[in-house]
Amino acid sequence: MRTFKKIAAIALVAALSLASAMTAIAAANEEKTAYSFTYEKQQVIPGEAADKALEKLGKYNSEHELTNCADSTGKDMSYKYDSFEVITGKVDGKEIMKELTIIKDDVATEEGLKVGDKPADVKRLYPGIKGDLGLYTITLGNTKLIIDCGLNDDKVVAITYSYAASK
Question: Do 88 and 98 touch, CB atoms closer than 8 A?
């Protein structure tokens, strides 16, 4: 009887391990459709409703209105946090989060890139990224990452998540 219990326990552990491994494989195989930013366990995606994004990100330090000369849909708003800035504005009549720019090294992209990292890190974490004069860009779905490595192309100075409207 003891042998049977041991065999049953081993079989149960093996089945649970297999189920856990299958879940991990399924998650790894899920194809990412947009670049998203996670802050304090809250995920925001460029293009989502501005009020929802700001609610998820929590209390900001300051806000101010921006004049957008290139866009006649009205005023954009800037919301400053300790480590990043959020720009909201109207697109197709909806108030959305247009951009989020990381400016300090205490937060990172979901892929692990931080302000202060090297261009080699940018290229390793974002295969296929295009760069010119220290400015790297890559698009995924309706989102774009713009990574500024400064005039000397020596280190990341800012990382911007941007809404990229479908064409």
Answer: yes
Give percent helix, percent strand, percent coil of the chain, each to the nearest 5: 25, 35, 40
Q: pLDDT tens digit string along 66-123?
A: 986 666 556 899 999 999 999 999 998 899 999 999 999 999 999 999 999 999 999 9
CB 126 within 8 A of CB 111: yes
71 Ramachandran zone, left/alpha/beta (phi>0; psi -120 to 50): beta
- Asked if 42 and 54 count as a contact pair (C-beta separation under 8 A), the reply is no
What's the mean pLDDT in 10-37? 58
Are the C-beta atoms of 94 and 49 separated by less than 8 Å? yes
Q: What is the pTM of this model?
A: 0.79
Tell me the one-letter amino acid at 108: A
| Three-class SS state of 13 | helix
45-73: b (≥16 Cβ within 10 Å) or e? bbbbebeebbebbeeeeeeeeeeeeeeee
